[in-house]
């Protein structure tokens, strides 16, 4: 029987060939920083200038990059898929959004940024979110609350990823799960493969090299995302 309910999970490997760095580089640093210095609520409380500067630099970097053949292949697939497609990305870049922007929205398609979005900011008091494509200053007043500040709309370690109820519901009914360009080092995303297996889905990993969870997948195809993702999508 043909697959109808597709869940695709993407990680930073899909954006690597667009020029966005992945996270777990050999030196263990992200753009020269240790994780705990920039990607935790504690880091923001301790040194908001450092954290805002880190995200300001990444926001500016995003303006200089474009979606690649892998993002476009997934957008083409979603446009022609006869069924439900949930594209869950751990990436905070907007490259999937841009790849989908020039196609009519397909019925049954959803894109979820489970770790937030670099081009948005959120109020520390109310959690309300607004577009914020430009720089944030260390203590940025919030338009939503007199005592609030704007922080990057990013899910830091120890915080809850977004829309988990919708993601888990889609995983429970999926019949094809495809994981692309993620090391499987960060939970809860690293556990989605187990939920897909419980649902009885066909499970496929597309990555530069086998991830930590390789043995949990039915099938793996390895190479640069701009090659393996279009080839895989063309075969569906
Ligand atoms: C290519 C390629 C090419 C390269 N083509 N491929 C102990 C045990 C278990 C869990 C925990 C634990 N201690 C703490 C936790 C929980 C913690 C966690 O998982 N920690 C781990 C480090 C152990 N998780 C959390 O805190 C999360 N919240 C949470 O768990 O809440 C409780 C909860 C439980 C259950 C349900 C619901 C809630 C929050 C996690 C937030 C993660 N945020 C980050 C940072 C965002 C900020 C920012 O962007 O600055 O998100 S971490 C970072 O890692 C980022 C990424 O989205 C995420 C995943 O990384 P990714 O994308 O996989 O990148 P890499 O670099 O690891 O891998 C790149 C891959 O690409 C590699 O495989 C390459 O081979 C490949 N590649 N070039 C194809 N050209």
Structural key phrases:
236 residues; alpha/beta; six-stranded parallel sheet; three-stranded antiparallel sheet; 31% helix; binds ligand BJW
What does this structure look like?
The strands form two sheets. Strands 3-2-1-7-8-9 form a six-stranded parallel beta sheet, with helices on both faces. A three-stranded antiparallel beta sheet has the order 5-4-6. Strand 2, helix 6 and strand 3 form a beta-alpha-beta unit. Helix content is 31%, strand content 20%. The longest helix is centred in the first third of the chain and has 15 residues. With 236 residues, the chain is of the alpha/beta class.
Proportion in helices: 25-40%
Shape: globular
Distance between the termini: 13 Å
Give the ordered list of helices and strands: EHHHHHEHEEEEHEHEEH
Radius of gyration: 18 Å
What count of helical segments does DSSP give?
Answer: 9
DSSP E strands, number:
9
Q: Strand percentage, roughly?
A: 15-25%
């Amino acid at each position: 029987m043909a697959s109808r309910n597709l869940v695709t999970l993407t990680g930073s490997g899909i954006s690597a060939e667009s020029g966005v760095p992945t996270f777990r580089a050999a030196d263990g640093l992200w753009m020269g920083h240790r994780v705990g210095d920039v990607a935790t609520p504690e880091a923001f409380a301790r040194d908001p200038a450092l954290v805002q500067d880190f995200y300001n630099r990444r926001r500016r970097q995003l303006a200089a990059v474009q979606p690649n053949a892998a993002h476009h292949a997934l957008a083409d697939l979603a446009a022609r898929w006869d069924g439900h497609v949930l594209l869950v990305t751990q990436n905070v870049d907007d490259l999937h959004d841009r790849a989908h922007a020039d196609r009519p929205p397909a019925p049954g398609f959803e894109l979820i940024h489970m770790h937030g979005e670099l081009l948005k900011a959120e109020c520390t008091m109310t959690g309300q979110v607004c577009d914020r494509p430009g720089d944030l200053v260390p203590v940025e007043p919030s338009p939503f609350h007199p005592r609030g500040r704007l922080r990057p709309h990013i899910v830091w370690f120890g915080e809850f990823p977004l829309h988990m109820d919708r993601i888990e519901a889609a995983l429970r009914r999926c019949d094809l799960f495809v994981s692309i360009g993620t090391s499987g080092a960060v939970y809860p995303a690293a556990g989605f493969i187990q939920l897909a297996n419980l649902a009885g889905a066909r499970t496929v990993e597309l990555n530069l090299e086998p991830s930590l969870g390789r043995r949990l997948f039915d099938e793996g195809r390895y190479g640069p995302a701009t090659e393996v993702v279009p080839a895989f999508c063309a075969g569906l």
